[in-house]
Specification:
Layout (H helix, E strand, L loop, with lengths): L1 H19 L11 H14 L7 E2 L2 E2 L6 H9 L6 H27 L2 H12 L2 H7 L5 H19 L9 H8 L5 H18 L2 H17 L2 H5 L8 H11 L2 H10 L2 H22 L3 H16 L11 H9 L7 H9 L6 H23 L12 H14 L8 H29 L11 H15 L3 H28 L4 H7 L8 E5 L4 H7 L4 E3 L4 H10 L3 E6 H10 L5 E7 L6 E6 L2 H7 L14
Helix pairs in contact: 1-4, 1-5, 2-3, 2-24, 3-4, 4-5, 4-6, 4-7, 4-19, 5-19, 5-22, 7-9, 7-10, 9-10, 9-14, 10-18, 17-19, 18-19, 20-21, 21-22
Length: about 600
């Protein structure tokens, strides 16, 4: 145990720095974070561990596992924001450890450790681990399931046998314990995000198994990339019913059925019965089927979307993508175990990217489960590419040049963006110094053949970049959120007071008000006036243009209490009331300090 902790100490350290440092500092960011955290708090307040609700309405976006974790964290004596993000952060650290174990199993301790450090310092993975949506939970459970599969597929070799002899003579088979663990992790992933929790990792497992057990594919990988016809022949051969069923049987699919029935199915049945099927219809039809068939909430994109999203989300390590691809294309020159590992990671990536590229609704976070595979490939590349070759050298120089150029771009472009949305924070553009210096130093170490120092430079620069981004930059930008300031100006503590939103409703308003908010669509003044008539103390949040319209149309009904800039958007958010005199006598002094607002 002590030896294992010594091996993973640097992973725990870097992971804790990037995922836990100042985790509860920034407020929850619209829109998914307050929705998920608010849902967990409403379930906890109602002592209901089955039916997800937010703002007093049924929430069908996600299954229940993340809400359960948040409800448990909410019992701890910590800030609400920290509690909401803690499950994701812990799952992120767990993913780092499992990534280390995968790399250790296939390639060795050094590759596994570097892969975990790469993952801990990639932007999108850290975003997932520091936010309240279920992406980090899904990534952890998916990676855990695939690790348990790797334990079977990459078992230690028998004495005196090479990898080729072991693969061709005895093959491999998932053991009972591996199958139980792998499918239990998939079942929990179904509780975290639905069918995608087992469909995609199961597809990765099947695809790799078929390729790995196909004798011709294992023994003659030299010319497969030159002839598409040969690929087609292999595909036909692998999909023969006998061959397919024989390999499927080795994966023990009965345990998958048992795990789903024992772990995931009971809650789905229970929530269906409690809601008369409304939750099941909303989740499977709207948030699964419709997301696949048409873009929802404006989240669309072409086939280019996820490659571009990975280049941005895997930064700064994505600058190595081209040389990594070159080395992967020469994998036939590596030993068989090396080839099998590279094949497994590329199948992992391709399955997820292809599946979500076919879906019409697209979000960068959907492919977060591929980041462990990307980190493992990048780690192995940095170990294999120890001696520069003529074909690799210019691409490595180009990669470091991109890193330097990106740093300059941050130093010039980021202050311009910050000046527009959060004036006064332009100095945060100094973050560009980190990738700029990292690129220069890495170029020097690569030229001097100092590979260990090169890896340390890249890890150190990426870690510092993430720390500055999430521990310094994000809290500084968060200071420009003023929604809780507006809520502080309202008289919600007055008995019978109600809060409404006209034309727009941000989930953070519901979360920090800690009560339901009536949502009134723009133009529906009948509902608005009925609410005004029925409520003695009504407070209304609206955009500045909508507020002006209401004040002009009903000058005797509404008065302005306070206003604040709309966070990261143009215009102002205005708080109106129908009882201004009552507010003046009962409101505490104005303050933008969220801790003094009384809504934490």
């Amino acid at each position: 145990m002590i030896a294992w902790l010594r091996k993973t100490a640097v992973i725990w350290l870097v992971g804790s720095m990037t995922l836990l440092a100042n985790l509860g500092g920034p407020r929850l960011w619209d829109r998914d974070e307050p929705r998920n955290a608010g849902c967990a708090e409403e379930m906890l307040a109602g002592n209901d561990w089955i039916v997800p609700r937010f703002n007093g309405e049924l929430r069908t976006h996600k299954p229940v596992l993340l809400y359960w974790a948040m409800m448990a964290a909410d019992q701890l004596p910590i800030d609400r924001e920290f509690a909401a993000r803690l499950p994701s952060a812990l799952c992120g650290i767990g993913t780092l450890i499992v990534t280390f174990l995968i790399g250790h199993r296939i390639y060795g301790e050094s590759t596994g450790r570097l892969a975990a450090l790469i993952l801990a310092s990639s932007i999108m993975f850290v975003v997932a681990g520091r936010a309240a949506p279920p992406d980090a939970t899904l990534t952890f459970l998916t990676t855990l399931a695939l690790y348990l599969f790797v334990c079977a597929a990459f078992a230690p070799l028998p004495p005196g046998k090479t990898e080729a002899h072991a693969t061709l003579e005895r093959g491999w088979q998932v053991s009972t314990w591996n199958a139980m663990g792998m499918y239990s992790a998939m079942a929990l992933a179904v509780l975290a995000k639905g069918p995608v929790g087992f469909v995609l990792p199961w597809t990765v497992v099947i695809a790799f198994t078929l390729l790995d057990h196909h004798r011709e594919f294992v023994t003659s990988p030299v010319k497969w990339h030159r002839r598409c016809g040969k690929w087609l022949c292999w595909l036909v051969a692998m999909l023969r019913p006998g061959f397919f069923l024989r390999n499927l049987q080795q994966l023990r699919p009965v345990f998958l059925i048992v795990a789903m029935a024992a772990i995931a199915l009971p809650w789905y049945v229970w929530v269906g019965l409690r809601t008369n099927g409304d939750w099941l219809r909303g989740f499977f039809v709207e948030h699964n089927l419709e997301r696949a068939l048409r873009p929802l909430e404006g989240h669309s994109g072409g086939l280019w979307f996820y490659p571009v999203a990975i280049l941005a989300g895997f930064f700064p390590w994505s600058v190595l993508m081209v040389p990594l691809g070159i080395v992967s294309s020469h994998a036939r020159e590596f030993p068989l175990r090396e080839r099998r590992g590279i094949r497994f990671f590329w199948i992992w990536i391709i399955v997820y990217v292809a599946a979500f590229s076919l879906a019409r609704t697209k979000l960068p976070s959907y492919v977060t489960p591929t980041y462990p595979a990307l980190a493992l490939l990048t780690s192995r590349f940095l170990h294999v590419a120890a001696v520069p070759s003529r074909s690799l050298l210019p691409w490595m120089r180009a990669s470091f040049s991109v890193l330097i150029f990106t740093g300059i771009l941050f130093m010039i472009g980021l202050p311009l963006v910050l000046h527009r949305y959060v004036p006064g924070e332009e100095w945060l553009g100094i973050i560009g110094i980190i990738p700029l210096l990292s690129g220069v130093i890495a170029w020097w170490y690569w030229s001097c053949h100092e590979r260990i120092l090169l890896r340390r430079t890249l890890v150190g620069g990426a870690t510092l970049f993430c720390l500055f981004l999430f521990v310094v930059l994000a809290p500084r930008i968060d200071r420009h959120q003023h929604s809780d300031h507006l809520l502080h100006q309202s008289g919600l503590k007055i008995p019978g007071a109600r809060l409404a939103a006209y034309g727009i409703l941000e989930p953070s308003w519901v979360y920090y008000a800690q009560r339901p908010i009536d949502e009134i669509t723009r133009g529906d003044e009948t509902t608005l006036m009925n609410l005004v008539t029925a409520t003695d103390h009504l407070y209304i949040l609206a955009r500045s243009d909508d507020a002006e319209t209401l004040e002009q149309r009903h000058p005797d009904q509404f008065s302005r209490v306070a206003e604040a800039p709309y966070f990261l958007r143009r215009g102002q958010i205005v708080l109106l009331t129908n009882r201004p005199s009552a507010v003046a006598s009962q409101l505490p002094p104005t303050s933008s300090d969220r801790d003094a607002a009384g809504f934490r």
